[in-house]
Amino acid sequence: MSLINTLPHILLSLTLFFTTIHAATFDVVNQCTYTVWAAASPGGGRRLDSGQTWTFDVAPGTTMARIWGRTNCNFDGNGCETGDCNKALECQGWGSPPNTLAEFALNQANNLDYLDISLVDGFNIPIDFSPTTGDCRGIRCAADINGQCPDQLRAPGGCNNPCTVFKTNQYCCTDGPGSCGPTDFSKFFKDRCPDAYSYPQDDQTSTFTCPSGTNYKVTFCP
Hints:
The chain has about 220 residues and is α+β, with helices and mostly antiparallel strands. It has one domain (about 20-220): Thaumatin (Sandwich). About 20% of the residues lie in helices and about 35% in strands. The protein is globular, with a radius of gyration of 19 Å. It starts with a helix and ends with a strand. About 40% of the residues are buried. Residues about 5-20 have low confidence and may be disordered.
């Protein structure tokens, strides 16, 4: 059979394949008593007053994605106290530390989504990252990290990760796999949020999976 004759069959197979993989729906909910300027990459940004929800879809196959909250924003040139992205409401990139991150990659190996909460960029807002469909568990980091933050890591509106402050391999793991391990600072985060990444190579207890096709809710101040 010639390529011309097989091409329609190939296109039909690809169409059927991609139409069976649905975009994941994310509900971002602000349960804080204060306004949070939610941000998503991909997705942009949205102001969420207390009690408000922002819903959007993320395409299957998306990787290196994240959702976070920004605080004390003023888009007249000053931007946000925490989590700022180029002083704009609609984020085109990632936010500035400190910011608590809900990270994910959709439709990966073995038909799984991979998700985590990361404190590698520090902490600013308590967060819950949970499925609304599917058979898998949610994850949460809701401790009073800002109130208990070590003096060396304190920042306006949040608590920095030591990598942000000291910028050494001991905390940033920049020399490659196995080049660093837990520290007293990373243990501070891990003790309070066992589900969350406390340093860049904290994979074993910090990466979770859900079946591809799962929908999710990210809650600020759960």
